Amino acid sequence: MIDDDDEPNIVTSGKSMTVLNDGVRFRIEIYRLETDSAWTLEVVDPENTSHVWDEQFASDSDACDAAIKAIESEGAKAFMRGDNVIPFRS
Predict the structure, then answer these.
(1) Which of 31, 39, 71, 78 has the fewest CB atoms in 10 Å of its CB?
(2) Which residue has the higher pLDDT, 1 or 14?
(3) Which residues are bridge partners to 33 per DSSP?
(4) CA 32, 59, 75 angle in degrees (round to 5)?
(5) pLDDT tens digits, 3-40
(6) Share of the chain above pLDDT 70, in %
(7) Which domain of life, per UniProt (predicted)?
(8) What is the pTM of this model?
(9) Parallel, antiparallel, or unpaired for β 24-33 and 17-21?
(10) Contacts 24+ apart (CB under 8 A), 67-70
């Protein structure tokens, strides 16, 4: 039996936000386990497709800056083009 009390809590950064680019709204989610110091970055597009960075970040500010830079430099269409998504098996 798994004891949920042994699982670390997830800390969500106050830097998490919603941004609008090219008329498309993205959610920037920045979080870490309470036992870790590195932050994970996830960008969720309007179709609820999650784009998670492989690298982790030393600060939530660094993660937020990376997300905004990627969205602005790549544009909304780069996140939603479809050929970079591996679908789950049916």
Answers:
(1) 78
(2) 14
(3) 10
(4) 90
(5) 567 889 999 999 999 999 988 999 999 999 999 999 99
(6) 82
(7) Bacteria
(8) 0.80
(9) antiparallel
(10) 67/19, 67/28, 67/30, 67/41, 67/43, 68/19, 68/28, 70/43
DSSP assignment of the chain equals ---GGGSPPEEEPTT-EEEEETTEEEEEEEEEETT--SBEEEEE-TT--EEE-SS-BSSHHHHHHHHHHHHHHH-HHHHHSSTT--PPP-
In the block, which residue shows the tokens 């996140």?
A: 79
What residue type is assigned to position 17 of the chain?
A: M
Which tokens go with 8?
A: 């670390």
Tokens of 61: 């500010």
Per the structure block, which two tokens stand in for 36?
């870790």
Phi, psi at residue 66, to the nearest 5°? -65, -40
Q: Are 68 and 26 in contact (CB under 8 A)?
A: no
